[in-house]
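Much of the work behind modern protein science is quiet bookkeeping, done one molecule at a time. Below is the pair of lines this work produces for a single protein:

***
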Amino acid sequence: MMKIAYILPALTHYGGAERIIVEKANYMAEFFNYNVYIITLFQDQKSANCYHLFKTIKQFNLSIPYHLQYNYRYPKRLWKKIIIYNYMRKKLTKTIHTIGPDILVGVSYSKAELVSTIRCDSKKVIECHEPRAFHFNIQNRSFTHKLYAKYFYFKIIEKNADLIVTLTNESKNQWKKAKQVEVIPNFSTMQIKQFSTCKDKRIIAVGRLREEKGFFRLINIWKVVSEKYSDWQLDIYGEGELMNNLTEFIKANNINNVTLRGRSDNISKEYATSSICVVTSHLEGFSIVLLEALKHGLPCIAFDCPYGPRHIIEDEKCGFLIEDGNNKQFIEKLCHLIEDEQLRKKFSTAAIARAKLFDTDIIMKQWRNLFEKIAKQ
């Protein structure tokens, strides 16, 4: 029986990568009868998961105190970091030897260099939920971080990982020196109880309130649109460090008919009672939000940013792809959809059909074939 062990930072906060990993793990345990293990590096024993794991999945929380290094200034911080890192490597290695997995999966880039260099007999897979460029394009990345990532971090992963799995072909092309690279897109297990009628005068945006999600440019776009269509509402769902900044930005610019709703316990209902979904990210690994919106029959408008939206939206069939950063074009297309209910309904039908290409069973069959293939190599 196949043994799979996933390694990720924690399952204590809501996020796209965390949710998809739990959904994959549950599917493998229930339908493939795999022995699946979850290893969290930084989660302590008392912290509850945000997502429910299937009953047969065993979880190991290593409780590594990685944050303690930040209590010190350099150069002592560097010394503490080395001590904690070595402790983490030792504890992770012991846990992996206890499990004895056939395949070890490092989730995204959090300590991927550690996962790919662990001494064990397992095949080492790095599952990328964001493109490599994420480490170079986001403003809060330090120069030192970018330099280390470019010249050391990714080279360590390429040299040691047995397999890299990306979400798109564009991301795949960034791993030219890796041993083996495959592309498997994400899926959504969200159960649809109600489709959008495309009649509600409401636009929805969903995502973690972080810099890369581009909510500031969305609000600037909405400022123009709302002045023309004052009977329409923009609702933004999500939590994050920019909540206060966005709130102040909306107030300072006197923007109407936009509300930061926080996290929803029933986001499916919110999709179904909206008529358009907008995504204004600067960077996307894949965009589960777009896929969820399409499943509800929502026409979508997104910037054609690297690397995800173009793989989900068929331009002018189920929505609009906008030249990245072209706010004027985004405004024009959004106004066009607001004004044309029949076009929204046409896009809605195509959206539902498009979403079926990312069916859970189809995607999980790809994972099964890949794991069984690499386990035999």
The domain at 202-358 is CATH 3.40.50.2000 (Rossmann fold). The CA atoms of residues 36 and 57 lie 5 Å apart. The mean pLDDT is 93. The chain has two domains: 3-187+359-376, 202-358.
